[in-house]
UniProtKB/TrEMBL annotation:
<comment type="function">
    <text>Involved in the maturation of Asn-linked oligosaccharides. Progressively trim alpha-1,2-linked mannose residues from Man(9)GlcNAc(2) to produce Man(5)GlcNAc(2).</text>
</comment>
<feature type="compositionally biased region" description="Basic and acidic residues">
    <location>
        <begin position="169"/>
        <end position="178"/>
    </location>
</feature>
<keyword id="KW-1133">Transmembrane helix</keyword>
<dbReference type="GO" id="GO:0000139">
    <property type="term" value="C:Golgi membrane"/>
</dbReference>
<keyword id="KW-0479">Metal-binding</keyword>
<feature type="active site" description="Proton donor">
    <location>
        <position position="511"/>
    </location>
</feature>
<dbReference type="InterPro" id="IPR050749">
    <property type="entry name" value="Glycosyl_Hydrolase_47"/>
</dbReference>
<protein>
    <recommendedName>
        <fullName>alpha-1,2-Mannosidase</fullName>
        <ecNumber>3.2.1.-</ecNumber>
    </recommendedName>
</protein>
<feature type="active site">
    <location>
        <position position="536"/>
    </location>
</feature>
<feature type="compositionally biased region" description="Basic and acidic residues">
    <location>
        <begin position="96"/>
        <end position="115"/>
    </location>
</feature>
<comment type="pathway">
    <text>Protein modification; protein glycosylation.</text>
</comment>
<feature type="active site">
    <location>
        <position position="402"/>
    </location>
</feature>
<dbReference type="Pfam" id="PF01532">
    <property type="entry name" value="Glyco_hydro_47"/>
</dbReference>
<dbReference type="InterPro" id="IPR012341">
    <property type="entry name" value="6hp_glycosidase-like_sf"/>
</dbReference>
<keyword id="KW-0812">Transmembrane</keyword>
<keyword id="KW-0106">Calcium</keyword>
<feature type="binding site">
    <location>
        <position position="622"/>
    </location>
    <ligand>
        <name>Ca(2+)</name>
    </ligand>
</feature>
Length: 644
């Protein structure tokens, strides 16, 4: 009997949704609206039938049913002495004619109200049935949008006001020299081509297939469609002054970026690309929406830390919060470069929300690692999150290890050089790396090998080339007056990586290259000859340029830009190539989101003046998203002695 009060007497469907009854209200509401509409029609018809039947029943039954209904549900207050007033459903005239008259009037008014409600519902249902499919669909869509908007408003928790850190150097960065400016304009044009193509063929998908001219995604994003390229590219668009494109991306994010999705994503990738990208877009543009989205997404990553050790799973389902590790990782381990590349973003999340949870998670990881034994002072790539023990003793400054070392240094830089613990960990790690992994080839090339099964593999990955920039960035502040040494080491790595490009047909670097048996800086295996638009070599050129102003770095960057434009550009964007040693390479048909986030950004900065995002004030996360240094005077973290 509660039905009439809840179901569509008024013809409004929204109140029939009960968002609170599901843990995932938005999804539920948007998926079921059309079903609800059909239900509404069926129920309207059913009620009308009952109502009609009611009028055709004999009078006594009418009274009986009506009285029960009214008294039980609608007018329990009419008479407090229920038992004494009714017998077999009939009203006893115990209070005299006046009461009886009043009672009848109330009954009559309720009766006509219900009749009116039913008639209105019937009319509305008839009206709906007169409408075309398209009109009905449009109406349903409008209501869906309204529900989504309402839920969005509910989702946007108020964040505490936080003073903006000092934001220096957000301007044009005009290099002055017309020749350099022309090169920079060319990079900007390449960005525009990459963005416009994605806009046209892959909008809303994570990435683009520039030959097939359609959306693309990989397992790092699960089966989500979260516009990774949009989020990853935002700050590059902003820095390049592509404001219309930036606004377009912002609008998509405002209207479409939702995290209540049943998708198992990589915690690391989502952190560096999405949270890093959103935070950078927030700091550069001041638009609150980016901060809010970053925090909403970060909340979704937190369940990944629910492991016996607090070392997060590699993947988490954004909807259920269930985490797990990659099947290929040694003994169910988490990966050093993944759980060790959260610090910068998580410190900013605590700064912006005032919630210590984020900072605590990453500090817990650091403390745990500090307590562990390290073979030869090196950090193995694998750590089991259940047992807290290392998996295989493989160590790499490339894939699986790389950005862990980068984030130790950057934690120190981002804390305005006050996080001395991070600096110490970085220095110790680099010392061990230099002792055990860095060698010079017979031909005089400095390379960083990998420690595997008790010996040094004389192979270096494209990913490892970022380390040249890292050594240069960490030179200032290194112990024992070794700044010059580390700057030199950075220069040597830059040179080796440039050789890996220069020794190919396409002048683009392979994925991995060897230093063995006469072959140096060259890929040997067929499956290591590809170039997928990666940024690391150009990243190192840029850092080296900033610290030395040696023109060769701009020259090398320009060579790479020209090669990318010549061999990777297609009408639908930019694609990776499968063999950099072949003069007629085949394409891999993927425009990676990091091409827009990193490769083109580093190229643009290489041809800009140094006062655009100066390195004293900004620290770039591992996906090239700039985050401001948190000077303690401005920071809500200042009270936290861990950071201090
Ligand atoms: C990027 O997503 C990041 O730089 C990450 O740290 C590793 N490499 C890819 C691009 O090559």
């Amino acid at each position: 009997m509660t039905t009439p009060a809840l179901l569509p007497l008024s013809g409004r469907r929204i109140p029939t949704l009960n968002p609170g009854s599901s843990p995932f209200p938005h999804h539920r509401a948007t998926l079921r609206l059309s079903e609800k509409f059909i239900l509404l029609l069926i129920l309207s018809a059913f009620i009308t039938l009952c109502f009609g039947a009611f009028f055709f029943l004999p009078d006594s039954s009418k009274h009986k049913r009506f009285d029960l209904g009214l008294e039980d549900v609608l007018i329990p207050h009419i008479d407090s002495n229920k038992e004494g007033k009714h017998l077999g459903g009939h009203i006893i005239h115990g209070q005299g004619g006046h009461d009886e008259h009043r009672h009848r009037e109330e009954e009559e008014s309720l009766r006509s109200k219900i009749r009116a409600d039913h008639e209105r519902a019937l009319e509305e249902a008839k009206e709906k049935l007169k409408k075309s499919r398209e009109e009905l669909r449009a109406e349903i869509q409008t209501e869906k949008n309204k529900v989504a908007q309402d839920l969005k408003k509910k989702d946007s928790k108020q964040l505490p006001p936080v003073p903006m850190p000092k934001l220096v150097g957000i301007h044009d960065g005009d290099p002055g020299d017309p020749d350099i400016k022309e090169k920079r304009d060319k990079i900007r044009e390449m960005m525009k081509h990459a963005w416009d193509s994605y806009r046209q063929y892959g909008w809303g998908h994570n990435e683009l297939k520039p030959l097939a001219k359609k959306g693309h995604s990989t397992n790092i994003f699960g089966n989500s469609q979260m516009g990774a390229t949009i989020v990853d590219a935002l700050d590059t668009l902003y820095i390049m002054g592509l404001h219309d494109e930036f606004k377009d991306g912002q609008q998509w994010i405002e209207q479409n970026l939702e995290f209540n999705v049943n998708a198992e994503v990589s915690v690391f990738e989502v952190n560096i690309r999405f949270i890093g990208g959103l935070l950078a877009a927030y700091y550069l543009s001041g638009q609150e929406v980016f901060k809010i989205k970053a925090v909403q997404l970060a909340e979704k990553l937190l369940p990944a830390f629910n492991t016996p050790t607090g070392i997060p799973w590699a993947m988490v389902n954004l909807k259920s919060g269930v985490g797990r590790n990659w099947g290929w990782a040694s003994a169910g381990s988490s990966i050093l470069a993944e759980f060790g590349t959260l610090h910068m973003e998580f410190v900013h999340l605590t700064y912006l929300t005032g919630d210590p949870a984020y900072l605590n998670k990453v500090m817990h990881i650091r403390k745990l690692l500090q307590k562990m034994d390290r073979p030869n002072g090196l950090y193995p790539n694998y750590l089991n999150p259940r047992t807290g023990r290392w998996g295989q003793h493989h160590t790499s400054v490339g894939g699986l290890g790389d950005s862990f070392y980068e984030y130790l240094l950057k934690a120190w830089l981002m804390s305005d050089k006050t996080d001395l613990e991070a600096r110490q960990l970085y220095d110790d790690a680099i010392e061990a790396i230099e002792r055990h992994l860095i060698r010079k080839s017979n031909g005089g090339l400095t390379f960083i090998g990998e420690w595997k099964n008790g010996h040094l593999e004389r192979k270096m990955g494209h990913l490892t080339c970022f380390a040249g920039g890292m050594f240069a960035l960490g030179a200032d502040g290194s112990p024992g007056e070794k700044a010059g040494h580390y700057l030199q080491l950075g220069a040597e790595i830059a040179h080796t990586c440039h050789e890996s490009y220069d020794r190919t047909v396409l002048k683009l670097g392979p994925e991995a290259f060897k230093f063995d048996s006469g072959l140096e800086a060259v890929a040997v295996r067929q499956n290591e000859k590809y170039y997928i638009l990666r940024p690391e070599v150009i990243e190192t050129y840029w850092y080296m340029w900033r610290f030395t102003h040696d023109p060769k770095y701009r020259q090398w960057g320009w060579e790479a830009a020209q090669a990318i434009d010549k061999y990777c550009r297609v009408s639908g964007g930019f694609s990776g190539v499968k063999d950099v040693y072949s003069s007629s390479p085949t394409y891999d048909d993927v425009q990676q989101s990091f091409f827009l986030a990193e490769t083109l950004k580093y190229l643009y900065l290489l041809f800009s003046s140094d006062d655009l995002l100066p390195l004293d004030n900004w620290v770039f996360n591992t996906e090239a998203h700039p985050l401001p240094v948190l000077h303690l005077a401005n920071s809500t973290l200042s009270a936290n002695n861990v950071i201090r």
